[in-house]
Amino acid sequence: MPNPQKEKQSKIQAANAKWLGIPLLAIILDQWTKHIASTSLNYADPQHVLPSLNWTLLHNYGAAFSFLSQAGGWQQYLFTGLASVVSVIFLFILMRMPKGLIILPLAIALMLGGAIGNLIDRITLGYVVDFIHVYYQDHHFPAFNIADSAITLGTILLLIDTFFLEKKRKTQV
Question: Which residues does the entry assign to the active site, renumbered to this chain (predicted)?
Fold first, then answer.
């Protein structure tokens, strides 16, 4: 006997599969640019690109802003485990999201791609490759990469959805 609930969920998952191209693109761009940085830059030697922008190859053994980078090695397992769990959760959420949404699945897809991009580094290298170095005069922002940018953009979109679009969706129901 056909199960209408399972059929509906199956259609939603098929429709949401299109969102998987975004994390795939983020992962490919992230790994490609990290490879270029790793093979063409000298470690910690800034290469001027534009005013306030350098390419500077750095290895981040911690999390965002090098949090816990000097913790002695156990943090690699913590961050690898967290990134793995978060990636599975994001994938699960993305595939079950209601049809018709744009900003929320885009946010989740970007964060998923960024999380996996950095997870690949942690698993294969034991650290995350960072190379984008933004600064203004003597004020330096911590180096980052394309995966970090995808996570940041996804987070911004998630906040926009949460604070502006979620209320609108609830009033339309």
Answer: 130, 148
30 as an active site residue: the answer is no
Q: Domain tally for the chain? A: 1
Instruction: Convert the pLDDT of each residue in 38-49 to its tens digit.
Output: 999 999 999 999
Is there a catalytic annotation at residue 138? no
Question: Which residue out of 30, 121, 148, 161 is catalytically annotated?
Answer: 148
Look at the block and give the residue holding tokens 């933004």.
Answer: 134
Sheet holding 139-140, edge to edge: 47-50, 53-60, 128-136, 139-140
Q: Which two tokens stand for residue 160?
A: 């926009």
Q: Residue 118 carries which side chain, given as an amino acid letter?
A: N
Mean pLDDT over each residue of the chain, to the nearest integer = 90
Whole-structure pTM value = 0.89
Residue 150's domain comprises: 4-172
Q: Which of 62, 45, 52 is nearest to 141 (CA)?
A: 52
